[in-house]
Amino acid sequence: MKNNKLFKVFSLSLSLLGLLVLFSSFIAKNITEKPKTKKPNIIYILADDLGIGDLSIYNENSKIQTPHLDQMAKEGMRFTDAHTSSAVCTPTRYGILTGRYNWRTPLKEFVTWGNSPSLIQNNRLTVAQLLKDQGYKTANIGKWHLGLNWSMKNNSPEFDHYSERSDRLNFKAIDYSQPLKFGPLDMGFDYSFMIAASLNMPPYVYLENDKATMLPTDKTERNRKIHPFSSWIKGDVADDFKHEEVLPKIVDKSISFIKENANKDQPFFMYIPLPSPHNPVLPIAPWKGQSEIGSPYADFVMMIDDLMGTIFETLKAQGIDDNTLVVFTSDNGFATTNDLKTLRQKKHSPSYVYSGYKGSYLEGGHRVPFLVKWPGKIKPNSISDATICTTDFMATCADIVDYEFKDNEAEDSFSMLPLLTNEGTYLRDATIHHDKYGVFAIRKGDWKLVMAPNSGIMASGKTKIHKGVHSEALLYNLKEDIKEKNNVADQYPEKVKELKTILIKQIRDGRSTPGKIQENDAISGEWPQAAFAFEN
């Protein structure tokens, strides 16, 4: 009996010892293993033709007040030296989604049209596909303007041009009843709601998940004038497409997507390319006539700011603001067609202190507002003077989700995460700029070199002559000459040589990031702006 009791005590002791060991192991495991951090939602908002001086947070003399975007800057980081990869629309969008300079594609100047084929090829990784592969729900809501492969009637040949104007109104062969042959859903987007190109370019139809929401039943008989500086090109129009309703509809669709996908185990990525304030300028009530300078353009910018405020409030109302990274920027500088004369008369400078506007190699053509908000990660009210490029978005996303690029992916993208979190080193050393006509410029530190500006070729094939420009190279020290008025190329030949050497190398290598040399896309005809790189 006594032995039996001792055996029970011994057995109980062993059991308790086993539990203690198991509990100790559990505690040790949880101490040494860090809990997995939930991936952030990511939203990239791209305005269209918004000048850096149009946001009051950037322009102390602005005649347009943008309180919601100003507040975004105060809650996050404002970049003062951010650049688009091109001074026009389509190329910048390509760079954002692929992390690659646009001029490496067949599109060497100008933009695509509503019936141009897809500029993004089916073997090209996009930021949407990258994030989708990492578990994200992805959405594209807004203005596409990167070309689309339309379904065609009666086996008609598909469109094969990119920027030639002569074929821009040929839409008769498009079969709107069929889904796109190649569009955003083939590039990693789970959901898409968009217009094909700019708000002044046909066809005027909404495309939801690569199919027209309504077939066009009407064609505008002539170019429609809204006011002296705002119009659109005639073309196919669907009954559910009202130009003045496009911006609010895109914002409504964006808000709906946020509400449907908030607080789920799966994070989401939204690419929201706005169609505004690009021409036609169409402010509606209650914003119409509300600006202090009596400008429809100013009203339109105020309308954008207010609608962005509704998106920001939605994030907070859904309780996901703290785990959402939001970027707001523009695809290029201010477009002079948007009533520049009136804005000047009212002492408003959409390019702020910089020279040039949309399309130009000058700073006003591609230096843009760039705001990033990520509570808990980015210090509020912080400012970065680092020179960044819109191509850097893709590498930043890859850094966030720990994805390592292959050699043929994101060849011109550098992660901005070190700048946002103040941890690590931002590796971009030089940035290549590109204007509407194919003119190259390169920036490193305070120095900017513009190469052969009078050899740019317009979409019509004619040489673009820049008035007052006679030098083969323009060299500016932006620290001393931010308005780019003094060409010092003759005074600093070694600096010209240094920057030209970098430019030539980055063109030839097919990349500006470290890695295996890549091929630039084949083109038909000459590439006059690259010619100088191979002459010497």
From TrEMBL:
Span of domain Sulfatase N-terminal: 40-402
Record CDD domains: ARS_like
Domain of life: Bacteria
Keywords of the record: Calcium, Hydrolase, Metal-binding
Keyword Hydrolase applies: yes
Calcium recorded as keyword: yes
Family: Belongs to the sulfatase family.
Identification of the protein by name: Arylsulfatase
Organism of derivation: Winogradskyella rapida
